[in-house]
Amino acid sequence: MAVPGCIYDYPDTCEYSIVVTKPTDGTKGGAPPAPGRVAIPIAFTEEEMAGVRYAADGLVPAVVQDATDGTVLMVGYMNDAALRRTLATGRSWFWSRSRQEYWCKGETSGDRQWVHSVRYDCDGDALLVTVDQDGDGACHTGARSCFYRAFGDDGDAAPPAPR
Amino acid sequence: MAVPGCIYDYPDTCEYSIVVTKPTDGTKGGAPPAPGRVAIPIAFTEEEMAGVRYAADGLVPAVVQDATDGTVLMVGYMNDAALRRTLATGRSWFWSRSRQEYWCKGETSGDRQWVHSVRYDCDGDALLVTVDQDGDGACHTGARSCFYRAFGDDGDAAPPAPR
């Protein structure tokens, strides 16, 4: 099944791994994945899926955290299909509220997220996705984390590099 | 100004610190703060506040992270007033969507959150609050983190202790 906003086909089964490869047509930016980098699907159950409570708009916020150092990288939104794709492909999928389409993080920028775990909270209305972050970081500004600005005088990270 | 859902008065000025004290009437549970524990306000600017974009319901998700070890503890929601109270008091304030009232985390349970920093993301529609977490943890179940359940077989944390 071809998925809008993503350069590779999404399988309708969760039973196999996917090696995400760089397109060869030169139309997309970003560095290719490391050679042999394999995304690892997560064998979820429907009972677990039933534990997720979507808001009236069908979405749930997904906090994305660096699996190694714990940095909170970004917050995106998933619907049921984006969550299933994330679990099935081992790559982070979101629903873009502004573009009204699915996106697979890093397909254009190269800043891919390789999923380690997906957690859901006590009342099922938030997700926590731990990842290996490729590229410069998660933020479209070039910052590693989207949370590079702090209230108050002394908490801002270095300004992101131009991109 | 008395604030619904919180046992202490909320000042209309951001210019002083607050020592949050345990009520003495015996009606609330949880351990008292450590002696002399002081919440530290954050001197925010209106320019920073203007960088926050609230959803149509007036809310923005706030990811709460342990300032020491990086554990993502919970996700709550803030409106403009809850964010201002968080910054002004150095304690985490949220808007409860289910109860339709403000709550100051830990006032009943003793599981207070002492704010280190409040960040806002690149497009201003998510907050990241780093805290010292008092008590057993952030979750009403008794778990340290609300994200104690993982998709797949092997990722669940130990079940939370009864409470």
Summarize the SSE layout with pairings.
Two copies of one chain form a homodimer.
Chain A: H1 46-49, E1 60-66, E2 72-78, H2 80-89, E3 93-96, E4 101-104, E5 113-120, E6 127-133, E7 149-150
Parallel strand pairs in A: 1-6
Antiparallel strand pairs in A: 1-2, 3-4, 5-6
Short description:
Chain A is mainly beta. Helix content of chain A is 9%, strand content 24%. The longest helix of chain A is centred in the middle third of the chain and has 10 residues, at 80-89.
User: What would you call the structural class of chain A?
Assistant: mainly beta
Oligomeric grouping of the chains: homodimer
- Tally the helices of chain A: what do you get? 2
What's the overall average pLDDT of chain A, rounded? 84
Q: Major β-sheet of chain A, in short? A: 4 strands, mixed
Question: What does it look like?
Answer:
Two copies of one chain form a homodimer. Chain A is mostly beta strands. Chain A has a domain at 60-149: Ubiquitin-like (UB roll) (Roll). In chain A, 9% of the residues lie in helices and 24% in strands. Chain A contains two helices and seven strands. Chain A has helices at 46-49, 80-89, and strands spanning 60-66, 72-78, 93-96, 101-104, 113-120, 127-133, 149-150. A four-stranded mixed sheet of chain A has the order 2-1-6-5, with helices on one face. A two-stranded antiparallel sheet of chain A has the order 3-4. In chain A, strand 3 (93-96) and strand 4 form a beta hairpin. Strand 5 (113-120) of chain A pairs antiparallel with strand 7 of chain B.
